[in-house]
Write a structure and sequence with these properties.
The chain is mostly helical. The protein has one domain: Orthogonal Bundle (Multidrug-efflux Transporter Regulator, Chain: A, Domain 2), CATH 1.10.1660. A two-stranded antiparallel sheet has the order 1-2. The longest helix has 11 residues.
């Protein structure tokens, strides 16, 4: 049996570290509708490398200041 490799390799802590924010800030943004994240079967936030780059760009100076997961 082969186990499929998932493209989701980054987690909440990686996003927080890349943006220089706390986990609570990310949760607050989610509650306010500024940020939404894809989730795995357990409900954990998971991200691809492409999504990580998009998030960093969105929250960098000159960015939109919001990011939402799109299917």
């Amino acid at each position: 049996m082969k186990i499929a490799k998932t493209p989701y390799i980054y987690k909440t802590r990686d996003i927080c570290k890349a943006l220089g924010i706390s986990r609570m800030t990310l949760y607050t943004w989610e509650q306010k509708g500024i940020f939404s994240a894809p989730r795995d079967i357990r409900g954990y936030r998971v991200f691809t490398k492409k999504q990580l780059k998009q998030i960093i760009k969105a929250f960098s100076p000159g960015g939109r200041g919001r990011w939402h997961f799109k299917i």
